[in-house]
Amino acid sequence: MRSDPSRDPARPVAAGGPSTAPGYAGTARIDELRATEYRHLDRNGHVYLDYAGAGVAARAQLTAHHERLLSGLYGNPHSENPTSAAAGALVESARRAALDFFRADPAEYAVIFTPNASGACRLVGEAYAFDRTSPLVLTWDNHNSVNGIREYARAAGAPVRYVPLSGPELRVTESDLLAALAAGRSRRWRRSTGPGLFAYPAQSNFTGVQHPLGWVELAQRYGYDVLLDAAAFAPTNRLDLSVVRPQFVCLSWYKLFGYPTGVGALLARRDALARLRRPWFAGGTIRAVSVQGDWHRPLDDESGFEDGTLNFLSIPDVEFGVRWLDSIGVDLVHTRVGLLTGWLLERLTALRHRTGRPLVQVYGPPTGEGRGGTVAFNLRHPDGALVDERLVARESSAAGFSLRTGCFCNPGAGEGAFGITPEALRRTLPRQVESIDQYLDALRLLTGGAVRVSFGLASNAADAQRFLDFAESTYLDRAAPADTRLAPRDRC
């Protein structure tokens, strides 16, 4: 194994590194912020490469939170007293700021605060009017929080259809999408009371593939409501809801700007929101209720979907966060992330063992075209054997890198990446599978996941260069170990 130059945080970026790429100098504002607001990223030589998992908070965000709590007094918004009114005013201001950030008309869209993007998906799934004539269409490439909506659909007897991934770039072809959308347009479907739901990610959290935003209008022309998962897309791309107008958008704020955690949102068109029927009620979601009379009257605005007491001490941080990201510029972040992603892909795919075999197998687009800042791949030994992703997780952590390994809660993209066929899945009985390792053994797979590197708001050239140096110095020309025993995987 070669020495690891990436361990030296003071090591300058080599000539020809990402900072020399055309256009990089125009993103220097991010380097200035990295040296001030995000200087904690460079403590102890650490390299943060998991922006798809969580963004990083700026010092200004934490300072603003601290100062707000010390300068005022805020109480439960479900009251009329002064502290309640103060908290309620900040929550409503955060709603307006969120709509402004996404350029959404307040007369058309509502903001419902949730614990996270998963909570937003659940709100839609549990309250949507699924029935035997209202289908659910999903792409293979979906986070499990979106996949889980199928359980609500199936419980209501609704048809569930998946659109497969195609080709080495693991994209969805429009012809396959059209076929799935059209399949529900039977005579019985045309007599239905509900339109059906199409759910897909604007950007894959596995491969970084960016699926066309034009599919929103396409599916609507076929009579579907659209749930757009923007959790991986929104942190580094502009989503303009005055142009793209899905019925529902789910996201988590911490993925955009690191803080606060525990707060997400469902952005919903008011006409679609009015058609949702929740299967239960809670504190804060009703106008009136009677125990003896056995009735309740739900609220018909955003509050009817926000169960119990909102996180009123953290929701105001959303407003600071969107203003902060706007002040930096989403387009600037998009440019920086695109440059780093394209550079890393080019360098990783060029690495070759002495045997001539490639060191890296990338899943998804091999260039920066039509993709975001998430790079999923596996490393290979000189004989072509896969480097176990658990070994990479252990060794990269020891070298000071924060990245992620696994299937990233996206089993459809993982099945496509690893070539798992429907025939192989039919041979695997779910009742015999108690762990991910048993699942892999049943499928005769040598790996249970990929390595994922993802860039974000505060990423710089040194981050990309140091990871490339680590991958090259640690795994290039490294033979497969004789003992491959590693800790078991605990989840997909």
Describe this structure in words.
The chain has 492 residues and is α/β, with parallel strands linked by helices. The chain has two domains: 200 residues, Aspartate Aminotransferase, domain 1; 264 residues, Type I PLP-dependent aspartate aminotransferase-like (Major domain) (Aspartate Aminotransferase, domain 2). It contains 18 helices and 15 strands. The strands form four sheets. A seven-stranded mixed beta sheet has the order 2-8-7-6-5-3-4, with helices on both faces. Strands 11-12-15-14 form a four-stranded antiparallel beta sheet, covered by helices on one side. A two-stranded parallel ribbon has the order 1-13. Strand 5, helix 9 and strand 6 form a beta-alpha-beta unit. Helix 4 packs parallel to helix 6. The longest helix has 21 residues. It is globular and about 80 Å long. The two termini are 30 Å apart.
CATH top level of the largest domain is: Alpha Beta
The total number of structural domains is 2
Global shape: globular
Helix content: 25-40%
What value does the average pLDDT take? 89
Order of strands, main sheet, comes to 2-8-7-6-5-3-4
Largest pleated sheet: 7 strands, mixed
Poorly predicted ranges: 1-14
Extended strand count: 15
Distance between the termini: 30 Å
Q: What is the CATH architecture term of the largest domain? A: 3-Layer(aba) Sandwich
Going by CATH, the homologous superfamily of the largest domain would be Type I PLP-dependent aspartate aminotransferase-like (Major domain)
Q: From the helix content, strand content and strand pairing, which structural class follows?
A: alpha/beta
Number of helices: 18
Strand content: 5-15%
Radius of gyration using CA atoms only: 24 Å
**CATH topology of the largest domain, what is it called?**
Aspartate Aminotransferase, domain 2
